[in-house]
Automatic annotation (TrEMBL):
CDD domains: NAT_SF. This is Acetyltransferase (GNAT) family protein. Pfam families: Acetyltransf_1. The keyword ATP-binding does not apply. GO terms for molecular function: acyltransferase activity, transferring groups other than amino-acyl groups. Gene3D superfamilies: 3.40.630.30. Residues 103-238 form the N-acetyltransferase domain. It comes from Paracoccus seriniphilus. PROSITE patterns: GNAT.
Length: 238
């Protein structure tokens, strides 16, 4: 990841607090998902730093977890040797906002609005995005917004978008299961790109599980390109 994308990746989905331990930042989110409860590299690290991270996470009664970029093979190898196990391989995709703003969005299909509506929170809740993740959205600095998607005359999708340093990151994309594969996610991305461009962002980016083949296929068809990827390395509980 280039520095601007890396900064936006963390700033637009912020932890409640972050501590520096050697070459790592250690995020503490009190819930909110793995990203805001992981350690990640910010500079040159040493083996002693890893021990310090583990100790701090233990003090926080938090699982020992590192977010490791695919290109950081030395850290992955070191954690593996310590018994950490990788999971949730994820791709980070990006596109220039201008590439998504040329098509007119069908009427009453996708809207940007803040704060999010109760129906969006219900959609997120049904997809496992609960109060702790909504708290992360509230912590994100402005500009920020939510995307409401509609299909078949029904509210069907929700997403969160925030901007940092000219990069707009899309998070918490959720479409109701029975209304998927109708093209709604694509229109929601285009609405996000329009909002991002209007608010000074030249890039739109998101993270998607590599196991989510339909979503990967959609985004790649739209023109998104992979910028990086990562896995979480977690130490099994004793």
């Amino acid at each position: 990841m280039d520095p601007a994308l890396a900064a936006a990746f963390h700033a637009t989905w912020p932890a409640e607090s972050v501590r520096e331990v050697g070459g790592f930042h250690v995020a503490h989110g009190h819930g909110g998902g793995d990203r805001v409860n992981s350690a990640y590299v910010v500079g040159g690290w040493r083996d002693a730093d890893i021990a310090g991270v583990i100790g701090l996470q233990r003090d926080w009664q938090q699982p020992s977890r590192f977010l490791v970029l695919d290109e950081d093979e030395p850290l992955a190898a070191t954690l593996t040797a310590l018994g950490f196990q990788p999971a949730r391989a994820t791709a980070i995709l990006q596109i220039e906002t201008a590439r998504l703003t040329g098509l007119e969005i069908p009427p009453v299909t996708a809207f940007d609005l803040w704060p999010a509506l109760a129906i969006q929170k219900d959609i997120w809740q049904a997809g496992g995005i609960g109060a702790d993740r909504l708290a992360v959205m509230e912590r994100a600095a402005r500009p920020r917004t939510s995307i409401l998607g509609r299909v078949d005359d029904r509210a069907a999708g929700a997403a969160f978008v925030a901007i940092h340093g000219g990069v707009a990151m899309v998070h918490a994309v959720e479409v109701q299961a029975e209304l998927r594969r109708k093209g709604l996610a694509g229109w929601m991305m285009r609405r996000a790109a329009l909002w991002a461009a209007e608010n000074g962002a030249s890039r739109l980016a998101l993270a998607v599980l590599r196991s989510n083949k339909p979503a990967l296929s959609l985004y790649q068809t739209m023109g998104f390109a992979e910028a990086s990827g990562y896995r979480y390395f977690t130490q099994p509980s004793a």
